[in-house]
Amino acid sequence: MASNNVYLRSQLLFWDDELARAVADLHHAEQYDDRGAVEWHEERVRWAKMKINDIRDNLGSKKGA
């Protein structure tokens, strides 16, 4: 079980980093008014937030077990 928590924490770090990159890329695309890139980076932000919430839910549900 501990190895699963290690894996989930490493995934959480990955998706936190991806979220930070996506937000920075989104601001850059907005600065240059690149609509295609804005839509892509908005989707990256949405996906990263979803993955982070899923991982946090998994970590939270396993603590009581």
Cα-to-Cα separation, first versus last residue: 10 Å
Uncertain segments of ≥5 residues (pLDDT<50)? none
Shape: elongated
CA radius of gyration is: 15 Å
What is the structural class?
Answer: mainly alpha
Main β-sheet description: none
Supply the number of helical segments: 2
Mean pLDDT metric: 93
Report the order of strands and helices.
Answer: HH
Q: Report helical residue fraction.
A: over 70%
Share in β-strands: under 5%
SS elements, strand count: 0
If you had to describe this structure to a student in words, what would you say it looks like?
The chain has 65 residues and is mainly α. Helix 1 packs antiparallel against helix 2. The model has no long low-confidence stretch (mean pLDDT 93).
Describe the protein's topology.
Layout: H1 2-31, H2 35-63
Helix pairs in contact: 1-2
For this entry, give a set of tags.
65 residues; mainly alpha; 2 helices; 91% helix
Summarize the structure.
With 65 residues, this protein is mainly α. It has helices at residues 2-31, 35-63. Helices cover 91% and strands 0% of the residues.
